Batch of 4 targets.
Target 1
Amino acid sequence: MVLTLDNLDDGRVVEWRLTADGIASSVRESYTPTLYIGDASGDLYGRQGGMTPSLPERDRLSPALRELRAFLDGQQAVSDLTVESHRQTFRTEARPLLRVDTASIEAVRTVAKRVRQFDQPDTYTCYNVDLTRQLRYCLETDTPAAPDRSVRDLRTLHLSFPSHESGIESLPQLTVDGDRVGSSPREVVTGLREVLEERDPDVLVLSTANLVPLLFEAADAYGVEFALGRGTGYTKLAGESTYTSYGNVGHSPARYAVPGRVIIDESNSFFYHESGLEGCLDLVGRSGLPLQELGWASIGRVLTAMQIREARSRDVLVPWRAWRPELFKTASTLDTADRGGTTFAPDVGVHENVHELDFASLYPNIIRTRNISPEAVRCGCCDTDDVPGLDYSICERDGYLPEVLGPLIDARSEIKAKIPEADGDDRERLEAASSAIKWILVSCFGYQGFSNAKFGRIECHEAINAFAREILLDAKTALEDAGWRVVHGIVDSIWVTPADERDQQPLEEVAREVSAETGIELEYECAFEWVAFCPMRNSESGALTRYFGKRRGETYPEAGLGDAIKTRGIEGRQRSTPAWIEDVQSEALRVFDETRSPEAVCDVLRRRLRELREHEVGPNGLIIDNRVSKDVDEYSMETLTVAALKRARIEGAGLTPGQTVRYVVVDADAGGTARVRLEYEDLDRYDTTWYEDATVRALESVLAPIGWREGEIRQYLSGTSDETLAGFVTE
């Protein structure tokens, strides 16, 4: 069981393990990473298995592989060439492949590229090529990836540094666990060294990984002996890059490693942000992905690691490219298959006595209960019409994907059952583990349709959607037959209210019947005193994901809405909304709950806008947070965000696509960069009119369900009527 691993330049690997006193290291002197190569034509041995193992090793290979072996033999990147039999897919038997042991981690990809260039691109198929370093080592050496916390708990150290700073002269702004360690770059490096020696942390949580080269640059400039890890120096694992995922542009910062310590970059760690260190460690144990790599891994990468472990247990190799193309479909099948989950257009307005029911982990449970797996859907060996509307067959043999997700579904159910009885550290640990698993389950469906998924397949994606549509429609029918009216439904959730002049069967009974019929639990989520479904911004049609409602029996905490009002899609849920506008909308929602009066809500707006005009609002509460989608020079419109990006470039803190820019609008009608100020500049003023307009739009979301749009709101504000008493929230 390891904490982390270091790959040395000479090919050796250092394993770092926790001990009761601190940490111990050991060196593996010879480690040769491995890839496998198959003959894509399969002329010699076909689908049913390899040649007889009694043949000499060389003769067990196809002619194409023998030719390739001769080409690779003696190359510097190659350590050894042998023949081994493995399964290339879940549907084939093991057959002889060329095993290539390489001289180093870097040599794996070098050999794979040479293989692709040796003949036509489709002549050979490479396997186990692009595994991450530490995951590969753990898999190939059967080394458990999780640190042994039965020995002792992990020690962590948090280093924070302003994201817009870059030079060593800014190092005095560095904080260690919230405290400054020096007033000059030399003092900072020296002070941090002393903290590291005293605390001896196992995990370094950095606000930005750019701190790593910056600290070493400062140490070198001032002649200070310095080590961030448990050895000298650092390694740059990858440079910064920009990527696009599901239409969104993201930024991946540079990644670094130091000897003997794990680095988690908060700006590049989804799972640390969502579930903390405990959630990350729980996933390390479940995925086999070491903590250093899980810290920066995406949901898809963690899911892939789990799939790789299941594939290896079945002696299936990991393809370098997606392993199966989309099968032929008729035009009518394509039209039917190219649909998402079922949605019922919401009934715009405010509805009393509403109940929400949700299918528990709908998509993962469809995969599990319907045996949805890449090798099972349209398997070719079963002639059945199993998938509703598509008539795809599903194999009778158990698929591998349900085997991957089943333990996660069960584990999360067990964890959620324990949470209500837990407290303190135990509760925090359980909630972190539940959150981490949730994200894997949420994403498993979409990953089947991802073109670069190692074991993905679009037919699985289509089959899951087809089952989900049928399940929600059947649930709607059952609820309506039981005397309930459906006011909204989307994919796995459904909202109902008692139908007029009908007797209602208890929802718990209906839910049990639907659960038994579908094989997936329909859970009673909660009751609402009322729910408001919003119309689209420029239409009277209902917006699918914009609503808010008061949970029955909940009260408001002092800090705000808490769990009393559930909101989705409105401004308070959007990351770009300034904190002050979010607070105004929260107050308006409370008054709306108490009065249902649009006049009272507008009185809240009138009073809060007065604060804005009289400059009683601090500029820090008006900061806008926007993600950059492309390079600043590629924008054609001079928006406020573009002005902020240009200003950041002038200030020497230019941003790349995928990063976030934070700014305050100071004069929307001005030209160029004068329209905004960045969050770290002097914020002594703001554009009152612009923020008034933004706040009115936020209040429109609250009042649109009862017919008050921006025109009605402004008309009321322009009047001279006295404010209602209900417009003031009492503490």
Target 2
Amino acid sequence: MAFPTSALLLLLTACSGVFAGGLEPQIPSVASFKPSNGAFELAPIVQIVVDIKYAARGTPSLLDFAGTFRDDLQAVVPYVALAPVLESPFVPDITFGIPTIYLTLDTAHEYKLFNGKPTDEGYNIQVSKSSVTITGSAPLGVWWGTRTLLQQAALQLGQGKKKVSFPAGSISDSPGWEVRGFMLDAGRHWFEASFIGDLCIYASFFKINELHLHASDNLWNPAFLYGEGNEGWKHLYAAFRFQPPPGSPIEGLVPRKNESWTKQDFAAMQTTCAKHGVTIMPEIDTPGHSLVINQWKPELMENGAPDHLNLSYPETIPTIKSIWDQFLPWFSASEVSIGADEYDASLANDYISFVNEMSSYIASKAGKSIRIWGTNEPSKTMSVSKDITIQHWDFPGDDIPVQLLKKGYRVINSEQFFLYLDGKTSEDNQFPQELNQDLIWAGAPGGKGWAPNIFSPTDPTNNTTPDDPNLRGSIFALWNDWGNNATTALEIYYQLARSIAVFGEKAWAGSDVRQTQLTRAQFDAAYPLLNAAAPGQNLNRVVKSVHGNIVLDLPGAYTSLKTLIPSVGPPYTLSFSVKPDSKAASTGLLFSGADSKLHVANLTFEATGQLYALGYVLPTNKFTSVSVHATREYTYAIINGDKANPHYWYTLMDIWGDYMALGNMSFAAPTAQIGGDGFRGTIKDIKLTLGG
């Protein structure tokens, strides 16, 4: 095997040793591990080698995945200095004394899902004293193998070990189900493309392979939508997130261009996700949930239901096809979702005809199949095509999933009882803030825990077996029913972070098939370490402190100052004193950062495009001391040391147009710049410490 002379001079010999404990329990658990003698120790210099025969195979290619793996390994194990990735013929165990991680393919090997169908996502890892070889039947399987290796390293370092050792032996692993995803409601809450890319990177660490992107929808206010003579529907928040180019015949569909993704935005987001093994599954929801389309073209509206399309109107279906014509070339996924839930049951035949026509149209236009949300549309003469995957979400709102499976429909489990979250709150606390751990671990019949084959917590006849040939897998969902102002993007991440990890275990390994599945105690021990170590993103907004828990300590007086710290995640305490000039007491910024801003006026936080006023007016020409305390659940201020009267930042949410609800807000500390945007005054004694 040929190595550059410079690399040879830098590479060190791997140390041998005994790894007594075997593999650390990780998320998701691996299917099998057969130990042998010795260990592969990650020395200060390690080489990653890609089998040149397969380096260009796939999109992303094996070489692409190797490059990302190299960056991630450097991030997870800081003491390692990695030489550039090499392409070379693969010769097992020939390392010339150099610690080497090989990535290669065995295209003849067949990995299988629980139902016996082949999968490209399985992998083997062979560990000897001198090398680690990760083999898959396709590049994606090798990628998941690199996640296993990274997690083992992160768990060891997180437990205080100074060096990482992989126990010698062989790992064989593959997922139980094809679809392992999470859904993000971006139709009712705006998210930057960079944030969605970071979510993909984080989810990939736990072997999640899909992000279902619900990209069009509206708030639901029955009085505005269905009140007789009420035209409030014209102004009710509704959004379509894909931005057509200027001059497009459907340009008017996007009323909020600053809250939509251009083709370039989406391509970058899609590429980032794909580079980490995650496919974006785009959804444009019709013929229900279509208010944004009817606000653009009211003539398409079903009489008395502004959020429904009139499918019998001659221009409706051609208009929907024109929307897909614009955006289908954007999407790299082999499937798309047309939504198709909660439509008028009295128009069942119209609905079924529409769904089948769109399935045929999208297949002929782009070679893609479609998914729909499960909706029981009662028709005695028509049925939805079996070419369509049905995403079950509700009993009894759609067909019973076990009956659909028996009829030959392919089904994805998104049963709301187990798998629904709602941003910040839900009506009568129907849905938890994160996936309910009691339900996930022991809430299914028999107490074995939830898995994608479990649809009902109480009725075993409504569940199927893990090897059901038509059960494709599962997607859990985070909805944003209360819109943009209910949460910040980072608060959405806080809801998703642990949920993604526990879902990753259950969607990959199940609950009662493999002997190696995690216990709840093992998961609880591993998760904090893996959440902190997940590479490629910094959604926790972690920063290094300069001394102890101090991030900033600026005792001087300032009118404007830039720092090298874009944002700091909670928990933190940000304290300062401020004296606005009388001429500009209500304008300008005290602090600004990547995720939030703190305005002088009413001590107003700004995040995700929304304003949240504390309602405190700073006096002019005198200093006021302010101490901002934040956790992931709330943010409050202590003014002039008055701890008995904390001031909380709240949001006011409209719950289904029925009542208003207060919610606490959590903000990242805005630390990129002190002062600015016209601020005139003095800020002094600035200190930011970690801990709320």
Target 3
Amino acid sequence: MPPLESLLLADTVVALTVGGVFWLAGATGLADLCWALGTVVAVGPAVGWVLGALRRGQAGVDLIAVLALGGTLAVGEYLAGSLIALMLATGRALEASARQRASRDLRALLEHAPRTARRRTGTDVRTVPLTEVAVGDLLVVGPGEVVPVDGSVADDPAELDESVLTGEPLAVRHAPGESVRSGAVNAGGAFELRATATAQDSTYAGIVRLARQASAESAPVVRLADRYAAWFLPLTVAVAGLTWLISGSAVRAVAVLVVATPCPLLLAAPVAVVSGLSRASRLGVVIRDGGALENLGRARTLLLDKTGTLTGGHPRVLDVIAAHGWQPSQVLRLAASLDQYSPHVLARALVDAARERGLRLSMPTDVSEEPGRGARGTIAGRRMGVGGLDAGTEKPAWARSADNRAVLDGATVVWLTVDSRPVGAVLLRDPLRHDAPRTLRRLRSAGIERLVMLTGDRAEPAHEVGAVLGLDDVRASLSPADKVTAVRAEREGAVTVMVGDGVNDAPALAAADVGVAMGSRGSTASSEAADIVLTTDRVDRLADAVAIAVRSRRIAVQSALGGMALSLIAMAAAALGLLPPAVGALLQEGIDVAVILNALRALGDDRGARPALQPSTQALIHRFAAEHDDLQDVLEAVRSAADQLSDSPGPQALAAVRNVHRLLTERLLPHEYAEEHQLYPALAPTLGGPEATATMSRAHVEIDRLAHRIATHLTLVGPDGSLAPEQLDDLRACLYGLHTVLRLHFTQEEENYFSLAP
């Protein structure tokens, strides 16, 4: 809390308390002296605040308090003045506590920016200040280093992590001659860069300038109290003036000012706002001041980045495709074994997926890694590779099908080769967050009318995410400057919130009315530029923040309007001479207590915002969520068996179907049975009854039906071990249908049920 507010609060408390002690002891003269001193002490700061507001063209709520303080001193109503001084000091102290902000000097942006570059002249490589780099210089960028200036790749290909610029988590390969932008991180081997711009004219410097400009353009927040004072102030002055004019009594006019002192505005609104800030912080939402909370409660447009905000921000295994004679789990295990020591983002995704499924990794030998091509090594005496395929490698039909699936799913393909022959493919994609759909539904319920995605990612995956989430608009392939332009355009129509997690989002966050940063894994720069930081890696905390802001603002408005209505009644009584100033001040204290107690409701939970789960139910959710990860290989086996039936419906394909039947019987169906009889009954009370899970129960019935149908087909296999032609189409349809139902069912459970648990 700033020193002035804290000192004023301490002085007014002491003056009122000591004066009360003297009054009880019968020393009324000393009591009046203490109360008068407390009033005088408050007049100076209050006049300063009023003058500051008037210089900004505002006649704020503090003007009524100044008039009341002066009036009580003029007519000798010192107790009333001391009470008003205490209320003024308390309101200012509460508001100052809510207004504490973190620095917005964008330190992280500046820290990330390189200050030197390695310039090559002939065979000599020297480190020079970045300001000395000129267009045409040949620079060397080592592994893990930041590209210092905009330029073009000179000789060897470059693999760059451009998430700082675009938010896209997958590394991008740039061939010689292609342009690259400053701020990207070298995710591969060293390469040479031909500078095409100076540091001042490069992309990253532009991001810093944009963030500074957008932050400087942010309009100051108008306090909720001041907005209501715009009509309450002239009304109060008019009533007090008319009272003096008609009655001829200055005491009556002062009594009107005393009971009109807008303590509901000075106290109730800040209390509700501070209570909302406290409530949000308990959920991992750091809101930097009361103005941000008020604006969030009025927001009608919400703009979201894609990568790291609506998606997880890092690639995960979507599917594993195996060649004939290979199993998907075998492909994933070998690929992860080769990649377990690689720092590449795709390698980490493979290893994480293998470990989630309980696969035991082998120890490769003779391992080597080539940027852009992947890792090579020997496992069990066979030479294997994981990554890209060599140029000219002939792809069998299943591999071409994998390529097609990658295009359709917007996924990246990592190939596993054995003795230079592809035997499997792993599809990876940055998946949608499980809690994203529920979050957006809750945001619309909270009053957000327009949801828009702003992303630097490609149009195809962006529009797919937008369609799944039901967004109102999707704008893809945006630069940081484009995002700022979009934010400014949206601000013209409504209070606008921008949500992001990367350095590239920092300018847009600063340009919005309210900037929200995914601070758990997002960049420090985005957190520095934001008004609100989500400290947990859950986007549903955004819906919590909006719900808290809306509720806190509603309670603040209720308290302010209710208190002012009571004050208006008291003003009428004071104007008629029924309330002397001291009694009016005490009555105003009673009104204050009522509105403050109402404002403190913002500390409590909004029961309708988030279902409350019992600890035992949360444990069940975590258990079944872990089983979903473990069952991914079963889904892959179902799809692989269907593919084999399509390619060559022989004994090998039939063996794959029998393996699927075993996996269904031993692992999948027991899981579904346990969900039906343990998880769903536990969720029913929270979700409003068994009808809430009825649709999902119907999916269990369909899964069981298809599994039983597959088992029946196996019993109808002929004596020669082959399927009748009329069986093939139905069995294949059962397998593909089961795979589709399982994918949809798993996704629905993860979005609707598993996302409820913290």
Target 4
Amino acid sequence: MIFNPQSPEGSGRTPELLALSRGIAVPALAAAFGRALAGFDDVLFDRAANAGAAQTPFLDGMRELRRRREDAAARFAAHLQQAWDALEAGTPLSAETVMARPGQQEAGLSLVSEHELESRLAVRNFAGVVLRDWKPVLARLDRRLACIAGLGALDADTNPIGPEHIGVAMHEAFGLCDLAAEVRLVLIKLCEREFAAQAGRIYRELDEHLAQSGVMPDISPLQRRDASARPAPVAGEPGADAGPAGDADPAGMQQPPAWARRFNAHWAAQADPQEGDAAGGSQSMILEALHELLAQSRDARGASATGAPEPRAHERPLSQHEMMSVLSLLQATPTETLRAAVGDQSESLAQRLKNEVLSGATRLGVDPGQARLDPKDEDAIDLVGMLFDVMLDERELEGRPRELIGRLVVPFVKVAMLDRRMFVQKTHPARRLLNSLAEACEGNTGQSQAERTLMGKVEEIVDRLIAGFNENLTIFLTLEEEFRDFLAQHRRRSEIAERRAAETQRGQEKLEMARARAALELEARVQDGMLPAAVLGFLREPWNHHLVLSLLREGEDGPAVGEALATADVLLEEVAQARRHVVGKPWLQAIQPQLRKVFASVGLHGESSTGAIEALHDTLQAIAQARPDLERALPELPRVSLPAAPEPEPVALDLGADVRTDAIDQADAERFRRMEIGTWLDFVDKDGRVQAGKLSWISPISSRLLFVNRRGIRFCVASPEELLVMERLGRLRPHEDDGAFDSAMQGVIDRLGPPSATLH
């Protein structure tokens, strides 16, 4: 992060308060970390006792931690002191910059070890948990510390005692110890459990002290809730970044999702103003408004459009017991027509479900001519049917993933009938389970072992739900917690894959740049086309290969690059002298060591390189003597893999041949250049399917933006201009990560909203 300490918004520095704040926070955080460390060896001993044959790493880790505990605690404190010193100097330290470890990243095409990547991701996860649990107090601390430091702003990346810097301090502390990868991850997880709450209390104490000292006293703290009494969302979980768990209201609504805001706008255009704001009101108000909207939609279409006959006096609605019995039969043994409706985008799941329920009632001895659906039960079927219609149509669900998600339709109709709060309560276990399962299935083609393992777990969860769900919703909570833990492990692997994708893209662009520069240098030296064959062959193959490798290792201004260019220039100068028939010159003597380096880069060493140099020497001498018959060819060179030019990266969408990105207004494209890493966008294909992409990396070479999917796999590399064209074509839009359930509900409201809408 580039930070400007001269922002005009900053107040004057207050050294006394800075010193006081350091005295309150830094020693307390260091002491809390030290106390947590003191208990970790016992935990490792318990882990070893339960690990069986895999106990050795934990025992070794326990001994190493005891040996280096004081050193680790001192290193933790040293980083916090360093970060605070930078704050007092007016140049806040970026936690991301420290974690990136400049030098290691730029070492040619080398990759960070998986052990190192997992450690970095674990401390980032720790930081995310602390930030979510203590977000309000940390937001106030950022402002108050910036105020007394005389800075315009601080954020999570530059707050010297914030969770990000604590994570870096932990990473450096444990990096001092010789620990197995699994042991280090256990220790970081223990810090999340034992140390995070203590850090939060220190934040609160410092924030209150600064407020009492008159530092921005007008910032009103939100009503506090004990962080230990509320569940923290899992890192990377859909909706986890929307705010801390404690921001939820008692009903579990949190901030209204996108579909509720859209619904409110539609409803406000129809409803009596005295009825109030549906989306901003209670859950019961939203539910009643939804039912009213469904009724209006049916009335607007007429009974024939729904396929449901007009109710007759002798008909009675099916009881809830009868409905549950029919749905349980469909859940255990879905009919072929219902299975076909899941795979057919042209058929309405809601209508098919209603037909199947009425047909299934006959198996219970109910006369189909005497029965109809209760309006509220019909509403539940319509909402769930349309919800799954939208999800299956708009999400990247094909083949086995589509079939597995489709098997959930009947269980979710039962949930909707038992507990209507599922539609309005974000924390409802059924919708949380559906969000997680949809995330695991979306775009999962089963190409990698990790994807196949994930799909296997999805199938297991769906099978257990189908077999075990009667009318007790507890099974959703049990399965959701189990699958959430499994998915968290998969996300960690996805984050590692994401970093690999960024490193691969960086390597490809460095290679592309090196090849382009080498091609320019070569063309400038061989453009006259009159060079002798041996010299031309030398420049086109071993020298070009050597120059590309030098550019990759050292960059454009590296000493090896300058030496390679100088070698070629000296060789060409000697060719020019030979053409002037200079006789008796000791050809190539000044650059023999450099020539040996060039030939060594393609595998010629010792006598082989001497023979190649002699061929160049004899060729120059033959030219000087005007004896072309004495020119010698280079010996056969080893077959080396010259770096191949990377294939042009396709953008996620076909922009069309008539679209020119060179005509784009650069001021509009600047918005994409300024986009923050981690931003999600929705990419819409020509069939209307939506895939979410996360901005993972921006090339400092080409300014192209790398997007990855939820499994960390690269699926789009595009320039800001190309992204702007996508946006104008309606193929790119901001991503609102409310989860699959809320996204589909927004689609349901869209279908219900316009007067001409149908129930699909």
